[in-house]
Amino acid sequence: MPIRQLTETMINQIAAGEVIERPASVVKELVENALDAGASRVEIATSGGGLNMIRVIDDGGGISEDELELAVSRHCTSKLSSDIHDIRSLGFRGEALPSIGSVSRLTIRSRTKEADSASEISIEGGDVSPARPAAANRGTSVEVRDLFYATPARLKFMKGERAETTAIGDVVKRIAIAFPGVRFTLSGSDRTTLDLPATDATPDGRLRRIAQVMGKEFPENSIPIEAEREGIALSGHVSIPSYTRANALQQYAYVNGRPVRDKLIAGAIRGAFMDVLPRDRHAVTVLFLTLDPALVDVNVHPAKADVRFRDPGLVRGLIVGATRQALAAAGIRTATTGAAGMMGAFRPGAAAYAHPGPANSHRAYDPDFRASASGSYSPARSPFRPLDAGFGETAQAVFDAGPLASADARAASTEAEAALLDLELGAARAQVHGNYIVAQTQDSLVIVDQHAAHERLVYEALKQAIHSRPVPAQMLLIPEIVDLPEEDADRLASHADTLARFGLGLERFGPGAVAVRETPSMLGETNVGQLIRDLADEIADNDTTELLKERLDRIASTMACHGSVRSGRLMRPEEMNALLRQMEATPGSGTCNHGRPTYIELKLADIERLFGRR
To answer: Within 13 Å and on the Cβ side, how many CA atoms surround 83?
Structure first.
């Protein structure tokens, strides 16, 4: 078959297949263009999940009439200097507009600040019409209709209208977090309006924008991060360990203001939260990396979704180290959602043994009883009284009997010292059901899971003992030779000193193998070959040897679980208070090794609301 030159339309359609994956991709490209033009307000409207219509209007610098035709030509851009490694804008490839126009009906109307009128240009299936005068305010309006009508095969791969609309909303929110000084609105016939008012570029303004996108719960349950290493700055917020999600969709990462979904950053977040979260839970994060554009390649993917760092190990180490340091500095904290769940569990409702309310009423209580609540209380009138018991002398004796024996109270009944009540976890007042410590502070009630709490304390002590000195190693009677590709053997040899600190002794053995002479004694009998190959893969991906450290930490976690205070053990008051004081002094003690909360705090104000006192 002879070689031939492709037509311009086919070239644009091929580019569209790389750049324009779905309607959300169109929105991303157009919004990025608006931001690069200096817009302070961006309005997005969609219809049919973006397949029928997408309109993006901004108040940016606009495009002059004589540049409109260049704007819809391939590889024409105003965002790239002569140095391709010095990229400081969101868009730079010059493929978005011609690619969109090749698979849709595209109209661009724009007016610059100096112009007396606007100009308009249209593209339909790749055919460009001449620019013509139009009426418009300063800025640019881009309208895309009938997306993929010129490539109907692509339509078969689109998801439902709701899914496409959700994807568009996610794209807008991700971009909006990075630009708190810009107002974003998203509306359309197929969705409710999303309005994100502009804040400012200060840390407080950025946090307000984050709260607009992620909800007010995140700022209340997050920790600020600020760190810098070798010219790379990291800032943002990460959730406390007890505030998690079932997936990683609420992990937002930005590199020089560009939203990215990078596997190295995602892996670093997992590593930072490794021993404080359950395996099926994910942290909520908003991280901003700022570095010299020459140190990151943003041209890895046509859609600019991925980036590549010159020193991935440095970036990963910065994220992991800064996050763990922030978690440790934050002290002991528990998620506000835990108290909300506790409130929901205590809130009065219809019980299985309760009398039904009056006819044609959905309420499970007697209105007359409710109305008399402000008067004298009579147990006999309560709708929640036992069905088969009256309130005679026997029942009254139960009310007067004092604390129930099943409460298993162990703390002294005397008033706690004021100094203990002022501490974060307060003073232990009782132990109930053999596992839960009830403590009191000046303004709250704290319930502690004694086994989970002690498990975390033992685990942290074991980790400190393991990593504060070289890990004991056991020498193999016969060195194990592991065959590897030569590049993997080189990587392992370059990290030999670090591996030796963790008890793994190895050296090169010929061009494509390593000889393993020592393994960490904590691992016991292990598959040395598999361990070495896993380490080689991790070094190739992230340039780190965290895998071996993670395995040692998992063993320490198991030891802590079996060596901590067991459920059902009765504790003396001084033991309970000592446990509370250790928790206050130990970073990460708000969750156990498996990610479960170690305590829940219920504010006095919430308790009073439960009893109708507020």
So the answer is: 7
Using only C-alpha atoms, the chain has a radius of gyration, in whole angstroms, of 31
Least confident of 89-98, 235-244, 331-340: 331-340
In the predicted structure, residue 544 carries a pLDDT above the cut 60: yes
Which of 162, 22, 46, 166 has the alpha carbon at shortest distance from 103?
A: 22
For residue 289, list its beta bridge partners.
Answer: 234, 255
CA distance 330 to 385: 46
Decide: residue 403, CB within 10 A, 0-12 exposed, 13-18 middle, 19+ buried. Answer: exposed
Question: pLDDT at residue 424 above 70?
Answer: yes
Round to whole Å and give the CA distance between 238 and 333: 13
CB burial readout 368-402, b (16+ within 10 A) else e: eeeeeeeeeeeeeeebebeeeeebeeeeeeeeeee
For domain 8-196, the CATH architecture is 2-Layer Sandwich (3.30)
The tens digit of pLDDT for each residue in 216-253 reads 889 888 999 999 999 999 999 999 887 888 888 899 99
Give the C-alpha separation, 299 to 84, whole Å. 9
335 or 312: which leads in pLDDT? 312
- CATH top-level class of 215-329: alpha beta
**Furthest CA-CA distance within the chain:** 105
Q: How many CB atoms lie within 10 A of CB 254?
A: 20
Whether the CB-CB separation of 286 and 201 falls below 8 Å is answered with: no
Residues 6+ apart with CB under 8 A from 53: 45, 46, 47, 143, 144, 145
Question: Does pTM surpass 0.85?
Answer: no
Beta bridge partners of 183: 41
* 230 to 279, 311, 317, 369: CA distances (angstroms): 32, 11, 12, 69
Tell me the C-alpha to C-alpha distance, in Å, between residue 400 and each of 14, 377, 382, 423.
Answer: 83, 15, 18, 33
| Residue appearing with tokens 């709708």 | 383
CATH class of 408-614: alpha beta
Cα separation of 236 and 144, whole Å? 35
SS3 of 325, please? helix
| pLDDT the model gives residue 14 | 65
Number of Cβ atoms within 10 Å of the Cβ of 265 = 23
Domain boundaries, the chain: 8-196, 215-329, 408-614
DSSP code string of 51-111: TSEEEEEE-S----GGGHHHHTSTT--SS--S-TT---SS--SS-HHHHHHHTSEEEEEEE
